[in-house]
From TrEMBL:
Coiled-coil blocks: none
Name of the protein: Large ribosomal subunit protein uL24
Keyword check for Transcription regulation: no
Database matches in SUPFAM superfamilies: Translation proteins SH3-like domain (SSF50104)
Source organism of the structure: Tessaracoccus antarcticus
Family note: Belongs to the universal ribosomal protein uL24 family.
Length: 123
């Protein structure tokens, strides 16, 4: 299975669902389920009963609001272009770099880097 094109810390815009148009930062990524948690998006409320936790700790009850995961296809990466937020697709580019071996010698190798399709710059 291929990896996702977004990762933790990326700024994304929600393009589908009840929070469409909202921009937020990715808090967590679940690769196997192809889902992400975006800050301030898809807020769910859970009613929790007060209880006794492990080691005698008291767990407070009440209504807890937290973000729920959304599918990665419902978000699109946001980049800054001339101070404005612009949505873009993500591409990959192979770049030649110099690496060091354990004995100190250097050699040429390639690494893959994420690129914004709209600007062509590294993300």
């Amino acid at each position: 299975m291929a990896g996702l094109r977004v990762k933790k810390g990326d700024r994304v815009k929600v393009i589908a669902g009840k929070d469409k148009g909202t921009i937020g930062e990715i808090i967590a990524v679940f690769i196997e389920q192809e889902r992400v948690i975006v800050e301030g998006v898809n807020l769910m409320k859970r009613h929790r009963r007060e209880s006794q936790g492990a080691g005698g700790r008291r767990i407070e009850g009440g209504i807890i609001t937290a973000e729920a995961p959304i599918h990665v296809s419902n978000v699109q990466l946001v980049t800054k272009v001339d101070g404005a937020d612009v949505v873009t697709r993500v591409g990959f580019e192979r770049v030649e770099v110099m690496k060091k071996r354990a004995d100190g010698t250097e050699y040429k190798a390639f690494r893959s880097q994420r690129v914004a399709r709209k600007t062509g710059k590294e993300i």
